[in-house]
């Protein structure tokens, strides 16, 4: 079982235990960043995590109309968090791997993929 620390820039979002691998890695996160706090330490990031959780629920439910609206919100409000190389994992050996923007799920689930472009440079 692999363990990682998830970061966005210098902010430790939480500890991840990888529980599954397919095309994307899946794990359970123990948050260090309190995205539910009001006011949040980083409101924009907190809003993104909440939005990502809502979006993953819509995907699971197969609600295409609501999912399309959710995607519009992402494009309008969160592209700076989605299209960035500021997300990364640090493994137990201290190695840093840049990842694509993760997707957060209810019940503390999280999926992610290694950023292959960043890995090649």
Automatic annotation (TrEMBL):
Name of the molecule in the record: Uncharacterized protein
